[in-house]
Amino acid sequence: MSDGWPDGPYRVGISGWRYPPWRKVYYPDGLPQRAELEYASGRLNSIELNGSFYSLQRPSSYQRWYDETPDGFVFAVKGPRFVTHLKKLADVDAPLANFFASGVLALGNKLGPVLWQLPPTLGYDEERCAAFFASLPRTTAQAAEVAKGHDERMKGRSLLECAVDIRLRHAIEVRHSSFQTPGFVQLCRRHDIALVCADTAGKWPMFDDITSDFAYVRLHGADELYVSGYDDEALDRWAAKIRAWDQSAYVYFDNDAKVRAPFDAEGLSRRLGITSVGAEVSRP
Q1: Contacting residues for 157 by C-beta, under 8 A, at least 6 apart
Q2: Which of 112, 142, 145, 231 could form a disulfide with 74 if both were Cys (CB 3.0 to 4.6 A apart)?
Q3: CA 28 to CA 31: how far, in whole Å?
């Protein structure tokens, strides 16, 4: 494994990395699927894990992802949709315990923010959001304690210890217009939750408010959701916007359908002075 990435205020990457259309376009012809994470993490300094949104992963998977990435690399981890979409943030003690017991702690010092993405059908409920925010662990040691409350489904597939005790940060992405109120922004600030700035091609609200000591940005597509890329002018604008916040920032491209995300992430990385990005690959 390489010496890793230098410390810096910006983490820029992609949401997931296993996409068949990326093969022979972003990933070199002949690159084994098992080597895709190692390849991507050699070119970008962060990746957003999104498989954890759809199902609980296993400790062995998180450990493998840790081992396959350079020192200094950081993963953001997407919280499970069972918590956000099915339980709608209510009565989530056991689901949160299951999530933190599923192996997240194996990422150790490569564990970055946890992302909680709400469904577009869920409106703002101050009491519900406040209770959820208050229930979130703020260190990996606290997360390990939460994990001990897991239910029977995690028996034999849990990790309840953390090798390092580090700060655990959280970000929330909302998609219902009722969240566009100063009260919600203030609530995020009180609980030190980063309010995601999401570009969704105008489909859902975009928030520019800084509510924690870091910013979290998700770029889903400039003109068409999950499809369209960001041209040089758009990347210049986003780089200027991120610099103007004067905060550390985590930025992830989710416009994967036409293989634009990894190229756009590399382009923004260069604009933000992340110099360890590998040699440029031609865009499709």
Answers
A1: 58, 59, 102
A2: 112
A3: 6
